[in-house]
Amino acid sequence: MNFYAVVLDATFPHQSRKSKKYLATFKIADMTSRMDSKGVADFISIVFFADKFDDLPICQRVGDIIRVHRSTVATYKDRKQLTANVCFNSSWALFPLHYKG
Q1: Domain 3-95 carries which CATH code?
Q2: Using DSSP, how many helices (H) and how many strands (E) does the chain show?
Q3: What confidence tens digit (pLDDT) does each residue in 12-60 have?
Q4: Which residues contact 25 (CB under 8 A, 6 or more apart)?
Q5: Are residues 66 and 26 in contact, defined by beta-carbon separation less than 8 angstroms?
Q6: Which sequence spans correspond to the domains of the chain?
Q7: I need a surface site. Which of 1, 6, 50, 100 has the fewest CB within 10 A?
């Protein structure tokens, strides 16, 4: 699955307790995300896995745009979740939000 999305929340990359892989989890929304009556977008989680810390995205702020290539779709705790295995075939690009205030 390839897509662009808005970052709603993100964890800082860290090493997994179960393996030597590094991971980062993002909550994202795109144009297909449903909105509730208050205008709040429903999110999808994406988990990035990599062999090295430097291979993972670091989100600077909510609103950054992320592009992901070759992610897989699964279900975790009855919710759709995407997985991007950067050490195998997935890739990403992060476009920071430039705020002029």
Answers
A1: 2.40.50.140
A2: 0, 8
A3: 999 999 999 999 999 999 887 888 788 777 889 999 999 999 999 999 8
A4: 10, 11, 45, 46, 47, 48
A5: yes
A6: 3-95
A7: 100
